[in-house]
Amino acid sequence: MRTNIKIGEESASPLNPGRRAENKAVKNKAVKKQRPRTDMRSQRKPGTSWRVILITIVSILVILGILAVAAYFIAQLIESKYFFCYKSLKFIPLANACNGKADCSGGEDESSCVAQFATNSTFPVRLVSNLTVLQVYSGNMWGSVCADGWTPQHTQVACQQLGYTVNPYSTTVSLDSLSPEMKKLFYGVGTVGARTIQSNVTIQNSCSSGSVISLTCSNCGPEVPASRIVGGQDALIENWPWQVSLQLGGQHTCGGSLVSPNWVVTAAHCFTGNKAVSRWSVMPGKTHMSSLGSYSVDKIIVNEAYNSELSDYDLAMIRLSNPVTIGASVRPVCLPPHQLGLRGGASLVVTGWGSQQEEGPSSSTLQKATVPLIDQTQCSAVYGASLTPRMLCAGYIEGKVDACQGDSGGPLVYFDGCWMLVGVVSWGIGCGKAGYPGVYSNVDQMLNWVYSVMQQNS
Ligand code: 4AZ
After folding, report:
1. Residues in contact with ligand 1 (CB, 6 Å cut-off)
2. In angstroms, what is the span from residue 289 Cα to ligand 1's centroid?
3. How many angstroms separate the first and last alpha carbons of the chain?
């Protein structure tokens, strides 16, 4: 048994070099024997190499994605501070764009800026009262248009004059339904051929057909199934499809309302300090705030009479570079007829993504709030001379439900057969404060301007 032990010790520490060489040879043999195993590894199953390729591609895509997102945010950051002169490939401070002095060598910083527009004449066609009776202005007088001899071509021309080409549609209204004011003077139309309705009309004492023309020029303001906003509720864009987000450098800044596929009505004060048209875009059809797929803007026109200190004539219009595609979540609101005659207490709805409390962030979901119209004299008692005829008030004297920052420029609508844009969110003292209702631009008082802008810039 001991012998066994001796033999064991010897083999554990081989002192004989001959034996060592022999051992090495054995080891080498063992390595050589392993080679075929290495070869087998290079003949991996096909799935393994695909996995490597896939991982490489995904890694590259992830890296490219991260780079693209980083580039986007860097571009946004630069864009928020600088204007890019694309002809001379240089940046200038944003404040130098649209300042009346060309800072880019090609002058492109001054070539597309917010423009002003003044109306020095009466827009010669209008729709009056909730009956939307067509009136024309000729020889310094407004008169209702008789249905006698009226043709679909006349409808087409009148709607075109009002800036609409979509769904021109006319009906007749009996003379008995008209107010004394609308029966003061009548016009008969001649054969169509002229580009304007008023160019070929004759004064008449009455209409032999016994009726006048009522006009609808666009399938605007469809009825909704159900019915920064403070005290509002979540809303769906499908129910308020004219609501758009007006974005500056991709950031929601103001609300706006589509009044046709390529015109948006908003507030003039949205453009104070940001007059470079290229920085603005319009996002229609979204309940949740987003900036992907917004429409570019090719003209911004503010009312020349806008007074930034008084917020008087706080109205502007935006022309889109391409018309929006009309659908369930994108559709224009109707412009109100003249003398709609709303009284204090009329139920109005304001919508927007503005703050849900004063100084708060804007809301990511569209909000709506029902606010009653406040009688003009009652509101003058609150705001005094600050309240001009171009403004109207809506809300509750006890506060709580109101428009707020970020809702500016957005719609205040009234339903009577269709939804009509009666107001545009403009200003107020705080948001939802007791005793201080929201103040809106009074669209009725600036319809002449709205129609003139659409007609002269289409
Ligand atoms: C604003 O700053 C603003 N409560 C809009 C509406 C109101 C107040 C402020 C009305 O845009």
Report:
1. 402-405, 407-408, 425, 427-428, 431, 438
2. 19
3. 115
Domain 125-216: CATH superfamily is SRCR-like domain (3.10.250.10)
Burial degree of 64 (CB within 10 A; 0-12, 13-18, 19+) = exposed
Looking at residue 200, what is its pLDDT?
84
Ligand 1 mean position, distance from CA 246 (Å): 16
426 vs 226: CA distance, rounded Å: 26
pLDDT digits (tens, 9 = 90+) for 191-238: 877 778 888 899 999 999 999 999 987 778 888 655 468 988 999 999
Residue 416 falls in the annotated catalytic set? no
Residue nearest to atom 1 of ligand 1 (CA): 405
pLDDT tens by residue, 153-185: 999 999 888 877 677 889 999 999 999 999 999
The domains of the chain are located at 50-99, 125-216, 347-444
pLDDT at 407: 98
Residues of the chain with pLDDT below 70 are 1-46, 165, 224-228
Tell me, in angstroms, the distance from the centre of ligand 1 to residue 438's CA. 7
Distance CA 284, CA 296 (A): 11
- Return the residue whose CA atom lies nearest to atom 4 of ligand 1: 431
Q: Catalytic site residue 269?
A: yes
Q: Which H, E and C letters describe 388-413, residue by residue?
A: CCCEEEECCCCCCCECCCCCCCCEEE
Q: What number of H helices and E strands is found in the chain?
A: 6, 23
In sequence order, the β-bridge partners of residue 372 are 347
Place of tokens 């001009």: 388
Out of 103, 109, 312, 314, pick the active-site residue: 314
**Amino acid present at 278:** S
Q: How far is the CA of 376 from the centre of ligand 1 (A)?
A: 19
User: In the annotation, is 121 catalytic?
Assistant: no
For a substitution probing ligand 1, which of 356, 397, 400, 405 has the most ligand atoms within 8 Å of its CB? 405
Please report the DSSP string for 64-86 in residue order. HHHHHHHHHHHHHHHHTTEEEET
**pLDDT value of residue 45:** 65
The CATH topology of domain 347-444 is Thrombin, subunit H (2.40.10)
